[in-house]
Specification:
Family: Belongs to the glycosyl hydrolase 28 family.
Oligomer: single chain
Number of strands: 53
Strand content: over 45%
Protein name: CBM6 domain-containing protein
Number of helices: 4
Pfam family, one: CBM_6
Distance between the termini: 80 Å
Largest sheet: 20 strands, mixed
Organism: Paenibacillus odorifer
Keywords: Carbohydrate metabolism, Glycoprotein, Glycosidase, Hydrolase, Polysaccharide degradation, Repeat, Signal
């Protein structure tokens, strides 16, 4: 008994000693995961970064990116970020400014806290910009070996030093997983020099933090897939999907590095880094995609595609036509919580044809229209377009949504350019976007707004809840003929200096003509798919009414819309356009929380089908709809079935 008491006493003393040396703040801060620095990269001398007491390597990109460095880590809880600069900090900026992150500077250190996954661009003095990618902890890390795991290093002999080519080993692992009916190809930390890789059905590729699949830079290691006439260069799809592949995933915290700047400028050869090509159910989660010689990620003729928590880094000074993300002739695409830096467009949406489009010559299948594409929570830095539909509209583009996003610097912030093709670009929404400033190419005029219909119509474009910290120079809204017009444009709560504009002049939209119909201002009409917050099983779907609708709302689910400015005169009713195949339940409108003051509700009834649309009018509670609020649209029902589909609502 005495021995047991002594042992218990010893354990208590040891625990007390441990608690005494671990500060309470550190224990409460959560978990920090930093990743090993790959051998091909070096750290910058301009900054060091720590998250709490954990060092986060800052990758020096001087050889390829010129203007910025970056770092990546994962965390849970709350963490204190400390940036130590190579000189005394006189000025600093933390973007997105809309996040309202406050910092403390002392000498050469800058300190602030993060409590959720966040992508930032920090500018200190005249040093290079610093991109900080703070991710959530991984929740689906696979084992490195075992049943269904195909480890490229231990199982297939891939060289992880970058000295020898690893193409055959990695492709063999992919082929084996596919032949077995599916599996996980595991890429451990290290550098894997590769030529083309072909992704196949039912195969996931896990890139461990610190791993890099890197292009060799030698054109002889690649199949030539296209010729880019405007640059006079051949090019390849570095990593692409087998035609008609299904159920593919790339995830982890590793990197795909195209080595494209070197190959383009030394060997006169281009690459697209990642090409989901005529495939279905393709997911990319958490990885970094960097350094393409041409357009980096091109989602092409594919459907049900998701990119989330991804980092896209390209040269943003020298390599023209190096778009970060291009969505082309695809359907049901979601890009969520991403950061993209490039010289050319960061987020772009295009459709082409085979006959006159050079890069499309070897795409499988036939040209397709593009629909149901949503970009949510994206940070863009470009010398060209930040978020741009077009310039290629050779097939219909219908239902493109960009929301809850940020423009750090660009030439054109929110644009629809119709330069190639005659079909319409229509039902496009830009919602809850903060525009900070501009950094255009030499000799061009910066602008926050650009609707240019040169070869076909642009219809039904909504700009809602846009905060303009800068306007740039003159913005454009022009058509070029009776068949190339701009119509159906709405500007809701587009703010300059915090005040909603009511005229085009206030917004510097002064380059207009008679082929562009004057926009409507502050209509208080909201497209459902433009929501800013949500909870529950909410889905986007193509609507027979045009564009997208929101479906799947069942008991307790909601969508919400920020900064709805009713003004000082109370609104008295709501029109809402709904579709339902059954009856029962309600759609409720609340102020500032899902259970806040109720404005009014619609009692659901069948309209004849889930795509049979009907406009309903409901009264508002007297005197409630005044001032500026967040509006919650809540679905209520006594069972778990869907209440109704919703395409838009308007306060009157």
């Amino acid at each position: 008994m005495l021995k047991r008491l002594k042992l218990l006493s010893l354990i208590v003393c040891m625990l007390a000693s441990l608690l005494a040396v671990v500060p309470l703040t550190a224990r409460a801060a959560g978990t920090i995961v930093s990743y090993p620095l790959p051998s091909i990269y070096t750290t910058t001398s301009q900054y060091t970064v720590t998250a709490d007491s954990t060092n986060i390597p800052v990758i020096d990109t001087s050889a390829v990116f010129v203007n910025y460095n970056y770092c990546n880590f994962s965390f849970s809880g709350t963490t204190t970020i400390t940036i130590t600069a190579s000189e005394t900090i006189n000025t600093y900026n933390i973007s997105p400014k809309a996040l309202g992150i406050t910092a403390t500077k002392s000498g050469n250190t800058l300190t602030f806290t993060l409590s959720s996954p966040t992508y930032l661009i920090v500018k200190i003095n005249n040093l290079k910009d610093l991109v900080i990618a703070a991710d959530a902890l991984e929740t689906n890390v696979p084992a490195s070996s075992g049943t269904g795991i195909y480890n490229v290093k231990t199982g297939y002999g891939a060289d992880s030093t970058g000295a020898a080519m690893a193409t055959t080993a990695i492709q063999n692992a992919i082929n084996a997983a596919n032949a077995a009916g599916g599996g996980i190809v595991y890429v451990p930390a290290g550098v894997y020099k590769c030529g083309n890789l072909v992704l196949k059905s039912n195969v996931s590729v896990y890139l461990e933090g610190g791993s890099v699949i890197r292009g060799s830079g030698n054109p002889s290691d690649y199949t030539t897939h296209f010729h880019k006439n405007s640059l006079g260069k051949d090019g390849t799809w570095f990593i692409y999907t087998e035609t008609n592949a299904n159920n593919i995933k790339i995830y982890g915290r590793g990197t795909i590095d195209g080595n494209g700047h070197y190959m383009r400028n030394t060997n006169n050869y281009l690459n697209n880094i990642l090409v989901p090509l005529q495939c279905s159910n393709f997911t990319v989660d958490g990885i970094t995609i960097r350094d393409s010689g041409g357009w980096a990620t091109i989602v092409t003729r594919s459907n049900n595609v998701t990119f989330q928590n991804t980092k896209h880094f390209n040269n943003n000074e020298l390599d023209y036509e190096n778009d970060a993300i291009d969505i082309q002739e695809s359907q049901n695409v979601l890009i969520k919580h991403t950061v993209a830096v490039s010289e050319d467009d960061t987020y772009s949406f295009k459709t082409w044809d085979v006959e006159t489009t050079d890069i499309a010559a070897n795409w499988p299948g036939s040209p397709e229209s593009q629909s149901n594409v949503v970009v949510d929570d994206a940070l863009a830095w470009s010398r060209c377009g930040a978020f741009k539909v077009g310039d290629g509209v050779k097939q219909l583009q219908d239902g493109i949504v960009v929301k809850n996003s940020y423009v750090y610097r660009c030439w054109r912030a929110l644009a629809v350019g119709h330069l190639y093709g005659t079909p319409a670009a229509q039902n496009i929404i830009f919602d809850n976007i903060d525009v900070e400033g501009f950094w255009p190419r030499s000799g061009v005029h910066s602008r926050w707004f650009d609707l240019s219909a040169k070869t076909g119509p642009i219809k039904n474009v909504v700009y809602n809840n846009i905060n303009l910290r800068a306007l740039g120079e003159v913005s454009i809204m022009k058509g070029w003929s009776d068949t190339s017009t701009v119509s159906g444009v709405t500007l809701n709560n587009v703010r300059v200096g915090g005040v909603a504009a009511t005229t085009l002049a206030e917004l510097k939209i002064t380059d207009t003509n008679s082929y562009a119909v004057a926009p409507k201002f502050n209509t208080l009409k909201f497209e459902a798919e433009g929501y800013n917050l949500s909870s529950g099983v909410i889905s986007y779907e193509a609507s027979t009414d045009g564009g997208l609708d929101v479906g799947g709302g069942s008991n307790g689910d909601y969508i919400a819309f920020k900064n709805v400015d009713f003004g000082s005169t109370a609104k008295t009713s709501i029109d809402l356009k709904v579709a339902s195949a059954n009856s029962g339940g309600r759609i409720e409108f609340h102020l500032d929380s899902p259970t806040g003051t109720m404005l009014g509700y619609w009692t659901a009834e069948s309209t004849g089908g889930w795509q049979t649309w009907s406009v309903k009018n409901i009264p508002l509670n007297a005197g409630t709809a005044v001032g500026t609020h967040t509006i919650y649209v809540t679905f209520v029902k006594s069972d778990s079935t869907t209440v109704a589909n919703l395409t838009w609502f308007q306060f009157k």
